[in-house]
Amino acid sequence: METIDIIIVIVYLLAIVTVGLLVQKKASEGIESYFLGNRKLPWWVLGASGMASNTDIAGTMINTAFIYALGTKGFFIEIRGGVTLIMAFLMVFMGKWNRRSQVMTQAEWMHFRFGTGKEGDFARIISAIASIIMTVAMVTYFVIGAGKFVGEFLGIEPIVASLLMVTLAMIYTVTSGFVGVVWTDVFQGVFIFGVILYITGMAMNTVTLPDEFFVSVPMMDGSFTAIKTTLSEWSRMTPPTEMSMPEGSTFAMYNLFGIAIMFYLFKVTLEGSSGAGGYMLQRYFAARSDREAGLLSLFWTCLLAFRWPLIASFAMLGIYHGIETGTVIADPELVLPTVIKNYIPVGVKGFLIAGLMAAAMSTFDSTVNAGAAYWVKDLYQTFLRPDADEKELMFQSRLASVVIVTFALLFSLTINNINEIWGWITMGIGAGMFIPQVIRWYWWRFNGYGFAIGTIVGMVAAVMTKAFGGPIAEYNSFLIASGSSLVGCILGTYFTPATEKSVLSNFYKITRPFGFWGSIKKELPLEIQQKIGKENQRDIIAIFFAVPWQVVLFLTGMMVVMKQWSNVMNLAVLLVFLSAGLYWFWFRHLSKEVKI
């Protein structure tokens, strides 16, 4: 980086810290403001913030690596988490279901669902602890990706680069809370969008890929192997049933590609039906109405659609670099920094680095702020210090943020690469958590004990598999964690009493979920039953439009950058059809408030 690039980055960092500090007073009003902005933030701000938080350096690096090595097949692999298909479920029904609870955290929601007795307390405590563990894992993911990226440019060790970014982000995250997080995300989003427009324009003007070219794939022993592919295969619109990755490649696990993708779709369907968690869910708790929960989801998803053309552009420039120099980029995870080093001019490089740092810091600040809420609201205030005043709670909020980041920095020392931690988050520890989160919405008999025991068993299974299982396929990790969790849920539920009917009735009337609620639903007046039934029917139909709509939307942008115009036309026709269905069954029915 030249002097002007470094100056641009420094000015950006100072600006972002300043933006965060400007809202310090607003955040200090109390924990309702610190964690939810008093539920007064506009939907477009929450949506833009969500997009910035989803667009991180680590994710951009690993997704670029997949597209570079596998083409659009890498996109389909990232259905496991990187495509963020959970947004379709949040948009149609999960966002409004969560907002209706009027709670601050997912753990506090357990009292709403299971009551304030022993079972509700047990579920709330376990949910809070599990969420904090997941937060540490997500911050670890940030630390590794940001360190690898920034360290490459500054010529310093990744852990030192991570400490630099963490320290800067912590200044405004700890000081200004959710309000600061959201508004700095919006500010960072402008940088991110500028980066997207510049890089996609450069790729389309610079790169025309030949019919055949070489890419590289990583091997299990740490080496890399160059393989030949064709443009038609690399840019195909539909996923194949099989691949032929070399034996010993870390991608060989995806050779039965059709089965892998069906498995990921199954996993994402369960995950989307569970209601998510962390910083994504926090924005729905902060939404002002059902309608705004839907609008922020739509805006968030449309903004995210621009991320995949950016990723495809970086991958294309990486391939172009190999063709021009005669040397294929060996490590797919280094495509992003290699492209920036070699193809971004002085001055612009500073803005690009600042934009990607913005992406990383927006993920970090959102994750840390949401994670701290579980300690303060669900453990400290509820069980340890019920009489704590706002000043004491604010101190605990900031202390929890620091402690979470410290644990993440220590954990990052045990992880070798970005895909390792991302695979474990999406297919290991995440799988151990979300089975109970799914069942809680759809089965009236499921109780707080079942939730807590299922979560404990699933997470222990995920941690034990990671610690002692050695190299293991992602689907095996998923099956072990989720299967163990399911057994724990069933045993915990049937060996303990059912939740009180009054608690279940209150939850059902306010939330109005579909599923196995017959014994509770029949106690309501017939008119209300019919109204809930119509809403549920529309939502179920709409989700069958929303999921493919999101996939097609993201793919269309990629095909434009790749200049595969026949694929663009086919996808555009499909997108119009899916958009019409989504409008008819979902958008035109958005309500401003719940009316029963």
Mean pLDDT: 86
Could you tell me the radius of gyration in angstroms?
Answer: 23 Å
Strand order of the largest sheet: 1-2
Mind describing the biggest β-sheet?
2 strands, antiparallel
Helical content stands at over 70%
Low-confidence stretches at least 5 residues in length (pLDDT < 50)?
none
Number of strand segments: 2
Q: What characteristic shape results from the CA principal axes?
A: globular
Content-based structural category: mainly alpha
Count of all domains: 2
- Kindly estimate the percentage of residues that lie in beta strands according to DSSP: under 5%
Our count of helices gives 25
Model description:
- This protein is mainly α and 596 residues long.
- The protein has two domains: 3-209 and 272-315 and 332-415, Sodium/glucose cotransporter, CATH 1.20.1730; 418-515, no CATH class.
- It contains 25 helices and two strands.
- It has helices spanning 3-22, 24-27, 31-36, 43-54, 57-70, 72-77, 86-99, 109-114, 118-154, 158-206, 231-234, 257-274, 278-285, 290-304, 307-325, 335-343, 348-384, 390-412, 418-442, 448-468, 474-494, 501-511, 518-521, 526-562, 565-585; strands at 212-218, 224-230.
- A two-stranded antiparallel ribbon has the order 1-2.
- Helix 5 (57-70) packs across helix 15 (307-325).
- The chain is globular.
- The N and C termini lie far apart (60 Å).
- The mean pLDDT is 86.
